[in-house]
Amino acid sequence: MNNPVVDRELMTTFRSPRSIILMLAPAFVTSLLVVLQWPTDAVVSESGRRAQEVFSIFGYGLGALVCLLTPVTPAVSIVRERLKGTLNLLFHTPLGRITIYVGKLVGAVALFILSLMMTLPAAGACYAMGGMTMTGDLIPLYLVLIVAGIQISALALAVSSYNKNIDSAVRTSYALTLLLVVGALGPYQILQGSENRLLAIGADWLRHLSPLPALSEVLGHGDVAGQGIVSHANSVWRYLIVAGLSTLAFAALTIRRLSVSIFDESRDSGVMTDDLELSQRMSRRVFFLVDPQKRSAGIADWSNPVLAKEFRSRKFGRATWMLRLIAVCAVASIALTYFAATGVEDWSVEMIGGLLVILQMALIVLLAPGMSAGLLAGEIESGGWTMLRITPQSSMAIVIGKLLSVSWTMGMILLATLPGYLVMIYVKPILQQQILLVIGSLVLSSIFTVVVSAAIGSFFRKSTPATLTSYCILTAVTALPILIWLGRDAPFGFRTVETALIINPMSSALSLMETRGFEPYAIVPWNWYFLIAGCVIGLIIFWRRVEQCQKPD
């Protein structure tokens, strides 16, 4: 049956230059991974071990690209229609809710399927090396990736139906994708082997919300996040069942929202002045007697009005949101330290510290691009830049004010995770100096992420492409060296892995924490030099872009 929404979505998607990038990026990256690991000698391995190594890197790289690129299109699909005013027109057509949803989902999945098809030549090169079968390796791999793409697209569509602006939809989609792919593994990591059999079984099924267990089984690496004897097989079938159910749940949430009631908003009517208590009315009268100009004497000369403006106009700048972020991060760090220390007896303090570092870097990479990439592009898009550049503020004052507004929030998040490190120092006091160096590395990584995101976003005039580009670049800088590290010794050599880890923002913290697998590499202080150089270059680029935008049109 012909679906006009599908035709419209496909036409809109494939007309955009962004779709070409999304289709070619997986093909380029996967082909590069295969070429870098292609055998250079004429000796053929009968065991197929080298072919399996190349196939593993190819599979994990393709899985990372699926998780990175899939949420982009569905996350903006519904909210963009809402902002343009065409969503209300769509609801008044004879099309039903399910038809509209299927059209949106197919339009998002079609681009993803074409991107996977572009990687078939690289997959054929892996198959030509031998050591694998079509039905046992390649078909299960692509089946898992297609189901993962549909699952993430359904999740992003649900997020898009509940958000009112594009930036928030993109940030929330990436946050929930990270929670779905990585966070779902946490309870099983802690509760496996627990005496409470019901909790262990529930955590086992919960981890199959993530495609990682199925992907790991297809690539021949057994039970991901498991310890000791492998507990289960058939992770692929478990994932297909759980992913199918979760996709139906996401679809039900979205279809429920696809009606004119999506525009209904309950607003607080507020309180009239005459309805306030007598003490509140008296205090308001006293404040209104004071001339606002008389209060300017209490404002210090070094105060940055751009910083105050960012805090008052940005959602994450308000004290309520900052307190929520701090509370969530503090509870997460303490809970991770407690459950890991009490639930798994053979975990060392260094391993728990490595998990805290990964948690912090995940928060930094997730939040920093969303807040700093649109510092300049968001002002230009909203029209606020026209008013800002006629103020007497210099370009450097604007740069400092905007960067400090994001750095303050990121600093609060880092401080909120300190209780976990305090517990580690209490358990093993000899690690105090080591943990201080780790915290310093994380602070430097946070500054690097904020400044580089702002520099990348300054080249755009709209916040959405600025945010997406920052997410892609920073995720690639963080994830690709880890993929190379996973292939250490075979096929990547020691020097290649060490060079790749130098550009990873979290590698120095993991090395200082002596996390397993990072000890032999001399990452410090070269990683610090790279981060400092990136901060300086990013700051200069952002400052120059602000200066250029301040000039008359």
Short overview:
The protein is an all-alpha fold and 553 residues long. The protein has helices at 4-15, 17-36, 49-69, 72-84, 86-91, 97-117, 120-128, 134-162, 166-181, 186-191, 197-206, 212-218, 235-257, 278-289, 305-313, 319-343, 349-372, 374-382, 384-388, 395-416, 418-427, 432-457, 463-486, 494-502, 507-512, 526-550. Residues 227-231 have low confidence and may be disordered.
What does this structure look like?
The protein has about 550 residues and is mostly helical. The protein has 26 helices and no strands. The radius of gyration is 26 Å and the shape is globular.
Largest sheet: none
Give the N-to-C terminal Cα separation.
51 Å
The averaged pLDDT comes out at 77
Helix segment tally:
26
What series of H and E elements makes up the topology? HHHHHHHHHHHHHHHHHHHHHHHHHH
Class computed from helices, strands and strand pairing: mainly alpha
Q: What percentage of the residues does DSSP assign to strands (E)?
A: under 5%
From the alpha-carbon coordinates, what is the Rg to the nearest angstrom? 26 Å
Unreliable stretches covering 5 or more consecutive residues: 227-231
Record keyword descriptors for this entry.
single chain; 553 residues
Blueprint (SSEs and pairs):
Blueprint (H helix, E strand, L loop, with lengths): L3 H12 L1 H20 L12 H21 L2 H13 L1 H6 L5 H21 L2 H9 L5 H29 L3 H16 L4 H6 L5 H10 L5 H7 L16 H23 L20 H12 L15 H9 L5 H25 L5 H24 L1 H9 L1 H5 L6 H22 L1 H10 L4 H26 L5 H24 L7 H9 L4 H6 L13 H25 L3
